[in-house]
Specification:
The protein is mainly beta. Helices cover 10% and strands 41% of the residues. The strands form five sheets. Strands 11, 12, 13, 14, 17, 18, 19, 20, 21, 22, 23, 24, 25 and 26 form a 14-stranded mixed sheet that branches. Strands 7-6-9-2-1-10 form a six-stranded antiparallel sheet, with no helix packed on it. It has a two-stranded antiparallel sheet with strand order 3-8. A hairpin with a 2-residue loop joins strand 12 and strand 13. The relative contact order is 0.10. About 9% of the residues have low confidence.
């Protein structure tokens, strides 16, 4: 049995964990008195793998409340665990979710009055003039220590047992500490294995660098058509680090760098599926209610864009006229100066519009290749003398299997939160 357990656990985080066979009453209740088997070994194994944590009194006081009730003639008692810092009688504490500050009247630990509690202590804190019905569970802290967020940015990983798509703009149940609220997600990441190390902040998030927009959250596994999962050996096309912007339907109070879990709790509880979709760590709490105007424009998340048109005719050795890249109503002036590439290899710059039908002029500073000039010259000769109404049709009919229309490609990126909607190359 021990070997079987080791085999079962070898692919989990418990690989190599000691397995101690234990029997408090060998042979069952009716067996003769025989000393217990394995109990002493279990105690020694537990002692070897446990430790007394170091408790720090310094730092911000944060208290996780798990129950709140009133005592007549005394006040309201909040019971819970001190997560960090220390608290003493007559100190002021804040209930951040309610923006209420109260003075500590008294404290008890295991029914004994105490004057001070530190990190790791279980304690009951008594305050006055506070309705216990307003706080069942939550956080209490030093005044001003904990932010109440309307949004937040997290590092994120997909839970591999979740089979659904975790898509940008989808809504999930977001759990942070004792609170679970609905939130909308938007994913972005860093591409390339070398860029992941080029970070300018300890948190791994910087408003100074650019991130690529993602339609969905990628997992550590890739799926094939059969539905099986295989290890991804070539991950160059996948982000090396992923993040998510969470936008909450109602404000949330939580501790810094807290664990964040996204789930689909409205999934049928009788279905044999994992409802936990992703997990991560809070990197950047956003408290400004106007964050869409003040914070998001600083977050450089871009989308890669590409447009394709065709070269219609030749102006001279350095200039051509193109079409089908813009709509008739497009403001071509906003694209002036952007680089384009011809399917024949030349690179040029959009100089401006040509006429009123969405056509545009491209300047090739290095000049067109001789083969390109020859092809466009043939097209020009064939279309000479045609009326403007049949000009486009003649250009298309001039194409032969050996002389396909010359395509022109415009590639750029646009930052999704940029209020000016500028195009960057």
């Amino acid at each position: 049995m021990t070997k079987k357990l080791h085999k079962t656990l070898e692919s989990t985080i418990f690989a190599g964990a000691p397995v101690i066979p234990v029997s408090a009453k060998p042979g069952g209740p009716d067996a003769p008195e025989i000393p217990a088997v394995g109990v002493e070994e279990l105690i020694e194994a537990l002692k070897a793998h446990s430790y007394v944590p170091k408790r720090e009194e310094s730092g911000t006081f944060i208290f996780a409340v798990d129950h709140c009730f009133s005592i007549r003639g005394q006040g309201t008692v909040m019971t819970g665990t001190v997560l960090s810092g220390a608290i003493a009688v007559n100190d002021n504490v804040e209930i951040p979710s309610m923006k209420v500050t109260k003075k500590v009247k008294s404290m008890q630990m295991f029914k004994q009055p105490v004057g001070k509690a530190i990190q790791g202590d279980r304690v009951g804190i008594c305050v006055t003039q506070f309705d216990p019905k307003q706080l069942e569970r939550g956080l209490v802290s030093t005044p001003g220590a904990l932010p109440t967020m309307v949004a937040g940015i997290i590092s994120v990983q997909k839970i591999r047992y979740y089979k659904g798509t975790v898509a940008t703009k989808a809504k999930f149940h977001i759990t942070m500490g004792h609170e679970t609220v609905m939130g909308r997600v938007a994913f972005f990441g860093i591409t390339g294995s070398t860029e992941a190390a080029d970070l300018t902040s300890d948190t791994g998030l910087s408003f100074e660098r650019s991130y690529m927009y993602q339609d969905e959250l990628f997992s550590e596994m890739s799926k094939v058509d059969s539905g099986d999962e295989i290890d991804t050996t070539d991950r160059s096309h996948l982000p090396s680090r992923q993040y998510a912007l969470l936008e909450f339907e109602k404000p949330v109070t939580c501790i810094p760098a807290c664990l964040v879990i996204g789930s689909k709790l409205d999934t049928d509880i009788h279905a044999n599926v994992c409802r936990l979709a992703f997990h991560g760590c809070l990197l950047e709490p956003i408290t400004d209610a106007k964050y869409k105007e003040t914070i998001l424009p600083k977050l450089k998340i871009f989308k890669n864009k590409m447009r394709e048109g065709v070269i219609e005719r030749l102006l001279d050795e350095y200039s051509v006229i193109g079409r089908s890249l813009f709509k008739k109503e497009s403001n071509i002036q906003t694209f002036v100066g952007l680089k384009v590439k011809l399917s024949t290899g030349e690179e040029g710059v959009i100089e401006g519009g040509f006429g009123q039908s969405g056509k545009f002029k491209v300047r090739i500073s290095s000049g067109l290749l001789s083969a390109t000039l020859e092809q466009l010259s043939v097209t020009k000769k064939k279309s000479k003398g045609k009326t403007s109404a049949t000009e486009e049709a003649s250009t298309q009919n001039a194409a032969t299997p050996s002389h396909q229309p010359i395509k022109v490609t415009l590639a750029f990126k646009r930052y999704i939160y940029d209020p000016k909607k500028l195009m960057i190359q």
